[in-house]
Amino acid sequence: MAKEEPRSISRDLQELQRKLTLLIEFFQNNPKVIAFTKSPVGQYLDRHPFLALALLVFIVTSAVPVGFFLLLVILTTLVALVGVIILEGLVISVGGLSLLCILCGLGFVSLAMSGMMMASYIIASSLINCRFSPRPLTQQNPSGDCQLAMKATDFKGLYQE
């Protein structure tokens, strides 16, 4: 049963990879995405993936505070219709300053989150590549160190040529 378990995991990973590939192809073939990637902003974000991920995390996390601020503006506008105009300016300015502080904090949080997400992606993908590489079992290092095993096989190939 121990030999069948990695095969099922490998099969599951191949199925997941196929589904992710289909999802990526769907997004890449979308006309709006194609138009955005051809724009100068899209090309800049394509060259800077960390900034693109940080921007995506920032947009997602800042949606709730911006929504609360817009709700505050609408409510104070309704109150101003009743007759409290001076209070409306004060409430909107205080709300705007608090929104600015929240968005600055979310900017730092999004940079930290995108850094952790990219680091975990790199670590997970290298571990998966190390574990499920198509090398025969004879080339794997018994100590389990994938990097050393790959370097050792690369050097053996260089000396044989």
UniProtKB/TrEMBL annotation:
Coiled-coil positions: none
Membrane topology label: Multi-pass membrane protein
Segments passing through the bilayer: 53-86, 92-113
Entry keyword set: Endoplasmic reticulum, Lipid droplet, Membrane, Transmembrane, Transmembrane helix
Entry's Gene Ontology cellular component terms: endoplasmic reticulum membrane; lipid droplet
Principal location class: endoplasmic reticulum
Record's subcellular location: Endoplasmic reticulum membrane; Lipid droplet
Superkingdom of origin: Eukaryota
Family stated for the protein in its record: Belongs to the LDAF1 family.
Protein name: Promethin
UniProt organism field: Callithrix jacchus (White-tufted-ear marmoset)
